[in-house]
Every structure is written in structure tokens, then in C-alpha cells.
Amino acid sequence: MTLNHKEEVSIDDITRGEFERTPVPQYKLKSWKSFLGMYAGEHAAGTEFLIGPLFLTAGVSAFDLIVGLLVGNLFAVLSWRFLTAEIAVKNRLTLYFQLEKICGKKLATGYNLANGILFCFLAGSMITVSATAVGIPFDMPMPKLEDTLPNGVIWVIVVLVVGAVISLIAAKGYDTVSKAANWMSPIIVLAFLACAIVALNQLGVSSFSQFWDIWGEGRDPFPGQIKYTFWHVIIWSWFANAAMHIGMSDLSVFRFAKKASSGWTTAAGMYVGHYIAWIAASLLYAVYLNSPEAQAFLLNGEAPPVAPGPLAYNAIGVFGIIAVVLAGWTTANPTIYRAGLAFQAVLPKLSTVKVTILAGMIATIAGLFPAFAMKLLGFVALYGFILAPFGAVIVFEHFFHKQAGIIKNYAEVANIKFNKSVLLAWGISFGLFYFISVQFDVFLSFVTLPAWLLCGILYIIFSKFLQKNIL
């Protein structure tokens, strides 16, 4: 055994191979190929079966959807490349440890709690997605677009069973979760492509002009939905993963990258999942909207249900059921696992298995309520709006601490557990722009970037005045 090998073993023993509280060592760095498959698989998942149809319920036009998604996803890739990956390869720390250095342990614990709960709600919507497929053989009534409460005993039983299975698998650890997802992601991508081809055939599309006419000039939104314009599509698709890129959550991923250029691999997720898969899923819904059942809902002034299971089953049969179950499963599993890690920071005495089971229980309870899935566009916007400004604190400190003359990682240097500058900056930016959104009926994603910028600027200003010269 070489000396270098002995050192590697000792480091892995100390950090358990995850390096939660130490920079990732050189020998553990990965090439861009390691991230390409991960992002392609993670972003072609259960949410895509819902988001595509939900765009149609918002009355998007062909130009809004096809060009808007093209531009919005590009902005997301640029955010990952030039912010998240750039900072990640400089510090090589997880988001949680980086925030603890800046915010202090107490404030970071509050962030972890909020992050864990929001992760659970997101996982709950994925359990809902899988349940719509599992319930097909039992002739289960599907949740409607406006449903908030469980619609029957069968629904409750199916969700509880699906949630229990997903939680138990997630509790086995990330290796099990990630390996399964990597094997299943090609199947899911294939299913999306198959769904798109079958749907185009069912719609009688044989030319690009006919394809364009599926969305046409747009329509009025369905009852209970808001109208999405070109700018809604761009901004929403940019910030659908705001917590991950401008919110810096993916520091934990790209800290393993050899170079910041690995950030470009996120394009695989954005354009396979958030472009092709969203459009494919919307085609499935377009087919359903032509059915007598959907027309009956519309004639009664109701929005036709958006249930991924039946939509996929109608296109590609049993393979569709399997694909939807796998898509929801492969998204919910890592999400529950991440929620468990966030909770473990709050409850350090509990084992990883126990906190993951706890997260799974919360996610399963959330999955009983269809509103989290049926209102996914709004929930994802809220999720990013709440968490993204914390990323601004990291970004602004990283790029501007020298020019502003403030101390980097102040909580660590000053040995404090609560950095007031962070809480004041986040509280003011969140409160101001959430008030603007509610009071003036402004789409929440439209104020995410202003809130992010204001939080970063206020953090620098407050730090300048509140930091003590301790060096």
C-alpha cells in the first residue's frame, strides 16, 4: 500500500467519502462526463410529465413555448456555468457548510429546516405522479386540476403504499438511489420520445406547420389558471431550478468537478428534460384535450384533469405506466434523501436512516394532497423565490468581498452562530418582493431575480456596517 493510498483511505474514513465539512481532495475530482449523465437523468423525470401539460392549461402559444423554453433554459445553463460551478471549484464545499461559515450554525440550521420541508413537498408531488400510474389497474378516480384534498379511499391507499416503498428505498442510501436512477433514466427518456411520436401521430401531424398549430396563437387559460406569456415561460423555466443554480444548492455537486466548464453539462438536463420532455408531455395533453371526456369538462367550465399516468398509458400502454412510476420514483427518491440530510443537520442525533424515513413520511403525507402536484408551476416558483436569495449571499461575498472590504466567511472567523447581516438581507428582500407579488398580482418568478440581487447588495451593505474588525 502506497503512502498516497494510505492518505486517501484516512481522508475517506474521516469524511465518510462525502466530504461534508472539508474541501473535496484532488484525487476525488471527476471529469465533465460524470455530470452529463447525472443531469440528463435527473431532469427527465416525474415533474416533466406534469409541467408540460400545465403549460397548456396556462394557454401558451407555440412561440411562447418553443422559443421561450429555448431561451429560459439557456439562462439556467449560464447560471450554473458562471455562478454555481465557478464558485464550487474555487471552494469545493457543500452549500450547507459554506452557509454555516457565512451565516453561523444557528441560521444555517433554520435554512436546512426550510430546505428540508420544501424538498418533502416537492417529493410529495412526485409521489402523486407515480400514484396516478399505479392507480390505473384499480380504476382509481384521478385528481382534478383544482383538487386540493384526497378524492377517495383508493387514492389514499395507493399514495401511502407508493410513499412507503419510495421512502424505504431512499433510506438505503444515496448509492442505491443514484445507481437505480442511472439505470432507469434512459428508459424514461425513451418513454418521453415514444410518447411524443405516438402523440404526434394521434394528432395527425405530418409537417412542422401542423406541429406549430398544436399551440397556435395560444388560448385563454383554463379555469383557475393564469395566462402565461412569452416572458412567463422564459422567466419560469430559468428559475424552475433557481434554488439549485443561483441559490447555490448545486455547489454540493460541482465541488467534485475538475473544471468550472463542467457546468455546461447542465444543458443535457435542460434540453433533454426541460425542453424535449416538457414539449413531449404537452403533446400527450393536447391529445387528451381532443377527447370527449376533456371536452365535457370544458363545456362544464371545468379544467380537464392533468394525470400523468392515464396520459402516458393512452399513448404507449403499459410501458407508459411503467415510465411514469419510474419517473416519479427516480425524482422522489433523491429528493427525500436530500431532505433527510437537511433534517439531519437540525437533528444530528438521529441516524441517516431515521431522518430519511421522517422525510419520507412528510413527503407521503404531502402526496395525499393533489394541490402540490396540480399547482406545481406555482409551488416551484415559490420554492425558488424563498431559497435563491441565500445563494446571493454566497455569490456577492465570493465576487465582491475584497472590493467591499468585508470579511469572508465572517461567522467562522468571528466564531459567531448567527450572522445578522444575512438574516436582515434575506428578510427585507423576501418581504418586500413577496408583498409586491401579492399586492400587485405580480407573477412570483418575475420578482425572484430582483429579490436575489437586493439580498446580495444588502448583505454587502449590512456586513460593511455590522462586521467588527477582528483581524
Give the key terms:
single chain, 471 residues, mainly alpha, Hydantoin permease, 71% helix, 0% strand, disordered N terminus, cytosine transmembrane transporter activity, transmembrane helix, CodB, transmembrane
Report on this structure:
With 471 residues, the chain is mainly alpha-helical. It has a single domain (29-385), classed as Orthogonal Bundle (Hydantoin permease). Helix content is 71%, strand content 0%. It has 21 helices and no strands. It has helices at residues 3-15, 32-42, 46-57, 62-91, 95-103, 105-134, 153-170, 174-202, 208-213, 230-239, 251-254, 266-289, 292-299, 308-316, 318-346, 352-367, 371-374, 376-404, 410-414, 420-439, 448-466. Helix 8 (174-202) packs across helix 12 (266-289). The two termini are 43 Å apart.
Write the layout of secondary structure elements.
Blueprint: H1 3-15, H2 32-42, H3 46-57, H4 62-91, H5 95-103, H6 105-134, H7 153-170, H8 174-202, H9 208-213, H10 230-239, H11 251-254, H12 266-289, H13 292-299, H14 308-316, H15 318-346, H16 352-367, H17 371-374, H18 376-404, H19 410-414, H20 420-439, H21 448-466
Helix pairs in contact: 2-8, 2-12, 3-6, 3-12, 4-10, 4-12, 5-6, 6-7, 6-14, 6-15, 6-16, 6-18, 7-15, 7-16, 8-12, 8-15, 12-14, 14-15, 15-16, 18-20, 18-21, 20-21
Question: Mean of the pLDDT scores?
Answer: 86
- Derived structural class: mainly alpha
- H/I helix tally: 21
The tally of domains stands at 1
Keywords: Membrane, Transmembrane, Transmembrane helix
GO cellular component, one term: plasma membrane
InterPro entries: CodB
GO molecular function: cytosine transmembrane transporter activity
